[in-house]
Amino acid sequence: MNENASAMALLPRLHLFELIDQDWYPRALRDLGTDYLETVSNRMGIFDGAVDVLARALRASEREELLDLGSGGGGPLPRLRKLLESKHGLKPHVVLTDLFPNARAAERARAQGADYLERPVDALRVPEDLRGTRTSFNALHHFRPEQVRAMLADAQARGVPFVGFEVVERTPKGILATLAVPLLVLLFTPLIRPLSPLRLLFTYVIPVAPLTITWDGLVSALRAHRPEELRALTASLAHEGYTWEVGQLPQPAKGTLTYVLGLPTARANP
Questions:
Q1: How many other C-beta atoms can be found within 10 angstroms of the C-beta atom of residue 226?
Q2: Which of 116, 118, 151, 224 could form a disulfide with 96 if both were Cys (CB 3.0 to 4.6 A apart)?
Q3: Per-residue pLDDT tens for 167-224?
Q4: The 133-137 sheet, strands edge to edge
Q5: Which residue segments constitute the domains of the chain, with CATH numbers given?
């Protein structure tokens, strides 16, 4: 049995529930999690290594626009847009969307020159009026394999680029990394804006935020799609005029980025 097969046997994918995915989960508690993730992502530059792959996707598109799916607390695109401009001379219009829009995140996005749609947008049913290169940051693991395939197939059918990045890993190392989450929540909470009394109460007095964010982090690792699984999904979508690529980008001290890149070949660069 090879190393990949051994890892998959040791850690089979478990589609447990994340609290932030649940319709019944209170918005205030959901925002505790998504705002924290946005702050950690940008303060640590966790997705900075994605900029070159993002540039490839943009250059294969008919329009210089990034349509982010599952944006939660805002995500890294406003930050990455600056890197795209400085490194590649690209100035895309950024549109953020989520099934459960975060009002405060929308305000932050607008302050950074991005749009955050106030209407709910289901990543599995992207409305016809939303176009541009589709992006996903740490969102693919929220979906079952057949749902991920449907998401990718829809981008391919519409002839738009798709690029998804995951920093969570279904590996022993990825599982163990969640043990540090409670400490990280305590350390990063003072950096979240706005820093409300409710957030302080549910972090330092009643530890709701550390416990719920740790649970969702553990489940994220257990639900993560391994690169070989993603390659099998994209191989099943093989179609003339559109190509798929799955790879990994090592980032010292930040974690490995796994990515899925779909390009309409009529416009893709060699």
A1: 19
A2: 116
A3: 999 999 999 999 999 999 999 999 998 889 999 999 999 999 999 999 999 999 999 9
A4: 115-116, 93-96, 65-69, 133-137, 162-166, 257-264, 242-249
A5: 3-264 (3.40.50.150)
